[in-house]
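Late entry, evening session. Most of the bench is empty. Finally got around to the prediction I had been postponing all week. Sequence below, unchanged from the version circulated by S.P.
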Amino acid sequence: MSIVGECLVAFIFGSVVGLLVQRSRFCNTAALRDAILFKTYRNTKALLVAMMILTIGFTGFLTLGDGNPMHFDVGLNQMVGLFLFGVGMVLAGACTVSTWVKSGEGNVGAVWALLFTFIGMFLFSLLWSYNYWPPAPVSMTGEPNLAALQLGYSNAATLQEKYGIPAIVFGIGQTLVLLVIYRAILRKERQQPGSK
């Protein structure tokens, strides 16, 4: 496919997904917040279905050899970063996806949240470069390295490479776990007063 064709497909796909996200009010933050605080599971179920589709699709491509996963080590820096990002999402009242949607709708608070997301990512990139490059290739090998506070990485691609088990097997396993959670939510909804 030509570059123009790839750009056209990306534009059409992005437009359709953007429209679906905007119309459905899908939000990763709301998926967890609403389930915990308000005992409503609409966004939670949507997130689980999206995760199941993505898991099967992603691991299917890996099994066929067409996937190109990112390889990065999980370490203390990612754990701290994810915690701070989660706090930021709660304070902003939205995830990055819905912040983009709200910004496009003219929500000034969402524009500020998005602006400071970019500033935070830029500052982090400077810190990352200062602290981890050029030693990163030495400390981030994919194997546990406790001296560098790196736990290594293990995903369907690396497990497929190490053990020869197709990535789709791990994908199916993860999808089954997500399906069990989804079905548990459906049972819980049926047990709530006022449900049909």
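Two things to note before I forget:
The chain has a mean pLDDT of 80.
DSSP finds nine helices and no strands in the chain.
Will write this up properly tomorrow.
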